[in-house]
Amino acid sequence: MNNKAINGMSQRRWLIGGLAVAALAAVLWAAYRPRPLVVETATLAEGRFEQVIEEDGRLRLQQRYTVTAPTAAQLQRPTLKVGDAVQAGDVVAVLAPSAPSMIDARTRGVLQERVGTADASLAAAVANVKRLQAALAQATLEAERADQLAKDNFIAASARDQARLAREAAQQALRAGQAQQAAADHALGEARAALQRAQPGSGAVAQGLWSLTSPVTGRVLKLHKESAEPVAAGQPLLEIGDTGALEAVVDVLSGDAPRIPPGAVVQLATGRAQPPLAGTVARIEPQAFTKVSALGIEEQRVNVVVALDAKADDLQRLGDGFRVDARITLSAQDGALLVPSAALVRQGDGWQVFVVEGGKARTRTVTFKDRHADSAWVQDGLKAGDVVILYPGSAMTDGRPVRVRSAP
């Protein structure tokens, strides 16, 4: 074999070896090269930034009226039910005089004897009146006779005056006797009335009903008494209120209360598929109270009273004590560049995000004016249209190849 053939075979061997090394290098590069991370992204845009406080609350009536019993009486069975509409001046409860207490046989006997005593006293008073009438008649005759004798000068003027005074004394005595007779008569009537109530089967209550009226136009909220029964003076009978005049009470953390400006806009969600109610902060109560959270932590909270802007007709479907989810707006700014909070990564004392550029993740240091749980208001470091990576993990680094996850 000549030299030329040998050189040709050697070149072929080098060519095959080179190709094998290149193939091996290509395989190794394909096996160990960084693979793109699949990421979720969001495109930045300008919008409305709102700093809000979200808490739950409840609706309550602006005015609540409690109808009470003005005196001890027997309440007749109410005809109203909870939710019934009433007008101002409508009768809402009727009171009857209380039934007398039950009396045993001994007390009944005492009352019978008391009737006999009163009857005897009346008879004595009648007899005394007749005696006094006779004494007055005699005194009148004596006075007339004395007047005639005095005219004829048979007796002195002093004797005539004594006869007149005796007649006046007899008249006064008769009046006193008649008064005693009237008192004995009333005492007898009282004793007989007491005995009448003590008779078996005399359970009828004297008529003299007292009608209680509604002080306001509204609806019955609560019936404290649903049956006929005795009630004491001042005892609540029912509650009435206007369900078209509602307000909301939202309890917030005492640390958040100073951040709420007067007249702050509030949105109240009342339930699924229901339009929210608009309102404004009317006042913040000056006293805090302790409330235990769902996690068992004691919190100091303050009631924020919200005035509703809804019409009375729109509130008729709601009621006192209904739960609402309140969204209190502390501040708002239109045209703010918003970045989702899920894209923010803590870097020392500042913040950074990862932006997708040319299929790779690039680090951007950002500053923002304000932020909340959902998004941040960017001041520097980003612009509208930038694509940021959401939920970057520990594997995300500057320059790392990424692939945007396609929408399902």
From TrEMBL:
Coiled coil: 122-149
Gene3D superfamilies the record matches: 2.40.30.170, 2.40.420.20, 2.40.50.100, Helix hairpin bin
Domain of life: Bacteria
Keywords assigned by UniProt, alphabetized: Coiled coil
Signal peptide: none
Keyword hit for Coiled coil: yes
Protein's UniProt keywords contain Coiled coil: yes
Domain annotation YknX-like C-terminal permuted SH3-like: ranges: 337-404
One Pfam family cited in the UniProt record for this chain: YknX_C
Protein's name in the database: Efflux RND transporter periplasmic adaptor subunit
Naturally occurring in which organism (per UniProt): Hydrogenophaga bisanensis
